[in-house]
Amino acid sequence: MRILFISDLHYTHETFHGIYQGLAWSWLLDIVYRTKPDLILSAGDWDKGISREEFEELLREVPVLSIYGNHENMEVLKQLRNPLLENKPVLVEDGEVVEVEGVRISGISGVLSKTGKPKRGVPRKTEEEYIEICKKLRPVNFLLIHEAPAIPEFEGIIKLNPHTKTVLECLKRVKADLILGGHIHETPYTIHLGEFKYLRVDSSQRHRAYGVIDTEERRVEVFIDKKKVKEFEY
C-alpha cells in the first residue's frame, strides 16, 4: 500500500508564520494527484479553513485517517466519514486501532497542557491523561501523534519542556513500526531512528513537506514540495 503522510496543513485564508495559507488545499490536491496514494494519514492541524464540501470531494478520491492537533475545525472533522473505507470516520479516536489492507493504525490526538482544558474549541490533555492512553495502546504499524517528543534532534530547535519529556517516555513503551508526528514548524521535517522510529513533517505552506510510505518495501521517502530530500527504511 502507498500512504501519503502529511501534518500541519494549516489551511486558512490567513497568514501562518507570516505566510499566506489559502493555497494549502489546492497544494494538497496536487500532491495527491502526483503521488496517487491509497491512503492519507495526517497528524492533525488541518486548521479552521477546511470545509465539509472540499473534504468530502477529497474523500471520494482517497481515504483519510487523521488525529486532531491544536488548530482545527472540530465541527467539520467530527462529521467526516470515508466512503471508500466502509464509511469509517476520518477522525481516529485515541488508542483506537483502524486496519486498512492489513495495516494497523492508531493515534493520540492533541497537545498537552497543565489543566487539559480546551483552547479555541480544540481539546487538550494533561500529562496524566496522555500516559493513561499510552499504557493502553496496542501494537500497530503506524502511530499518529501531534505533540512533540524530547528527542535529540529537537535540541536547540524547540524547548524540551516536561510535556515533550512525557511524550518521549510514552513513545519508548509503544510498539509501533513507525511513529508519525507534527506540531513543529522550525524545520521542514525531523527523522529519529533510535529506539523507536519517528517522522515529523511540516506540510504548511512554510515548508510543504510530506512523506510517501511504501508499506510493502517498508520505505519512506520525504519530500519538500516536488523534491525528494530523504529516504529511509522503517
TrEMBL record:
InterPro entries: Calcineurin-like_PHP, CNP_phosphodiesterase-III, Metallo-depent_PP-like
Pfam families named in the record: Metallophos (PF00149)
Key word Kinase present: no
Keywords: Hydrolase, Iron, Metal-binding
Domain annotation Calcineurin-like phosphoesterase: ranges: 1-186
Similarity comment: family membership: Belongs to the cyclic nucleotide phosphodiesterase class-III family.
Protein name: Metallophosphoesterase
Organism: Pyrococcus kukulkanii
